[in-house]
Amino acid sequence: MSQLSVRHLLGIKELTIDDIELIFETASNFKEIINRPIKKVPSLRDITIANVFFESSTRTRLSFELAEKRLSADVINFSSSTSSVKKGETLLDTVNNILAMKVDMVVIRHSSPGAPHFLARHIKANIVNAGDGTHEHPTQALLDTFSMRLHFGSLKGLKVAIIGDIMHSRVAISNIFALQKLGAEVMVCGPNTLIPIHISELGVKVELEVRKALEWCDVANILRIQLERQQIKYFPSLREYALYYGVNKQLLDSIKKEILIMHPGPINRGVEISSDVADSDHSIILEQVENGVAIRMAVLYLLADSPLAN
User: Fold this and answer.
1) Along the chain (310 residues), what's the average pLDDT of each consecutive run of 10 residues?
2) Same fold for the domain at 12-136+289-304 and the one at 138-286?
3) Which of 40, 126, 242, 260 has the greatest number of C-beta atoms within 10 Å?
4) Between helices 285-304 and 138-152, what is the axis angle to 10°?
5) SS3 for 141?
6) In this structure, CATH architecture of domain 138-286
């Protein structure tokens, strides 16, 4: 297989195993390129990509922008905080105005679940979901699983614990789908109030004690507490959360096994993860950032090359 089966990247759910393997293979090639002295390739020279972010973002937006520029695409950056959205313009009108400027691809982040799917039904450009509400964040899951694969060779039978704010995390859901498709076992862990009621129906294990989750897993993907999405208090204080669910060196040392540490960022140091763990030899957090550029290059390149495109 040399082409994706989809013309948009809306979520991991829509991807086949062959799609994921093709993205990984393409990302490996691009990872080689971005580590060369000359990091640019002319692959998307005639393509214009709009980064349309209705939610604040630093790492994801910069990663996409860098990926686009490494591929020689023309890039338009759009931020809702400085746009006509504040004057009442709809999502569809906003994007149609951008498309009138002859944009080929739209990378969108939006607070409403399903916003990328809505656009995909109404406009001709390729859509890449950069995060929609608490629904999915497919490129984060792809870069996370790609990073694991580089370390372990295969994800078949790998035990991965996703620890933290599962309730509000689009990263957790996308990771669960990707990991299961690639043959990994998945456990979620966090306070009972931050575990969705029906999460076990997705075929994941549920653990409320962080020590037990760490004793079980080969990889710990530690998530940020998303206070900006929480309308009520789910635990007494950040201090108490850090005490019962924070991953620190003392806890890891007491388990006496090697665990690969991951985090999608941004890190709340001293809350869900301590600095001595985030900066340790077992942490691949910065590798995830590097792999993110390669994965996003692969996704953009493959979508632009799709026979279904436009």
Assistant:
1) 90 97 97 91 95 88 97 89 58 83 93 92 93 93 98 98 92 97 97 91 96 98 69 61 91 94 92 95 96 98 72
2) yes
3) 126
4) 120
5) helix
6) 3-Layer(aba) Sandwich (3.40)
Write down how long the chain is.
Answer: 310
Query: Could you give the CA distance from residue 105 to residue 41 in angstroms, rounded to a whole number?
Result: 18
Rg (CA), the chain: 19
Using a CB cutoff of 8 Å and minimum separation of 24, what contacts does 87-96 make? 91/54, 91/115, 91/118, 91/119, 92/118, 92/119, 92/122, 92/123, 94/52, 95/52, 95/119, 95/123, 96/123
Count of C-beta atoms within a 10 Å radius of residue 233:
9
Separation CA 18–CA 22 (nearest Å):
6
Domain positions in the chain are 12-136+289-304, 138-286
CATH class of 12-136+289-304: alpha beta
Query: What's the pTM?
Result: 0.92
What tokens appear for 5 in the block?
């089966």
